[in-house]
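Student: Hello, beginner here. Can you help me understand the protein record under this note? Any guidance would be welcome.
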Amino acid sequence: MPHSNPRFISRLTRNTLALILAGGRGSRLKQLTTWGSKPAVPFGGKFRIIDFPLSNCINSGIRRIGVLTQYKAHSLILHIQKGWGFLRGEFGEFVELWPAQQRVTENSWYAGTADAVYQNLDIIRDHDPDYVLILAGDHIYKMDYGAMIAFHVESGADMTVGCLEVETERAREFGVMEVDAGHRVRGFEEKPAEPKPIPGAPGRCFASMGIYVFNRDFLFEQLQKDADTRGSSRDFGKDIIPSVIKQYRVMAYTFRDPVSGEQAYWRDVGTLDAFWEANLELIGVTPPLNLYDKGWPIWTYQEQLPPAKFVFDDEDRRGMAVDSMVSGGCIISEAKVRHSLLFSNVRVNSFAYVEDSVVLPDVDIGRNCTIRNAIIERYCQLEEGTVIGLDPEADRRAGYQVTDSGITLVTPEMLGQNANHVR
């Protein structure tokens, strides 16, 4: 079990270097990642996905962080430079950007998660951590990494894998672990067709969160071994974990709510449906992810904006939002918004109606528009009378992206509009 002494955890986190893998496109998000990586995608009204692992690090006492970037990273880099430059180098604190730099050979882009870390071993050595915490940059959750690192040290592990309990049907999307009664990993299979259930819990599996704690020297040794292995895909899940579980001590740390002991909130918003659903979850009376938690704040960069404004209160021309979240800079003028999440600087004009939708920043919704079950990408300018989300086939004919469940994505390119913006 994690150690109860906060000084113990604090000392461990101070000697930990966190690496956030933020180089992936996230192709299942379709056109939302045409101009930037998945970790840069907006989430929750004012945040970016990358803000969640970064905030977890800061709140856990980890203040030495490297962010590894690759795919169309400009907007992600700008966001981190603007919003995450408050750490003090004089105190050994930093958030560093580590782009793919062809550090090994002239053609060596990051070939996989393990290769991304391997190509930066010289930088890691310079920082001289005792432990290296490796994180995915594209998941939504709040987690105290200090407790996981303490568990890693107390259990005498060479490597510890963060895991969730998931239903067997969902487990096919993850790396699935076989874990014994002592929390030691005895088997691992990436995205298995027939996931092995937890003993005594049929229908449930242990799934990897893509979060790893390594002893520094063990990490160096295994990455060099993997780099020398012909045919390796250079991936932690596919290659590193299966190669070490028999010979070394690999432990599983189950991610649970520290108060209730139940499965904690964690979302992979990797599809349009999941992205839409996770955003709209936030507007509930008691949402599963509490963004109002002062004890575990989510930090970000946001432009200084005026408060949201609702214009007119006549019976037939009332600006209103019900059961919704509306961010700064928004103006709802003689329009109605229901059960929706509006990001910053959204304008909803006269007699428009928006329902069950996620509207990203800097969107202008014209007069008499009707928008339902939609994701509206940043910078869209919807012309007067535009109808989206009422007829999936009509949306497809219009060139919009429609999911099997009927969620419609609209981007400026689909509207024939200028998309020369950093998104």
Remarks:
- Residues 268 and 274 are 7 Å apart (CA to CA).
- The chain has two domains: 6-281, 309-415.
- The two ends are 43 Å apart (CA to CA).
- The longest helix spans residues 216-227.
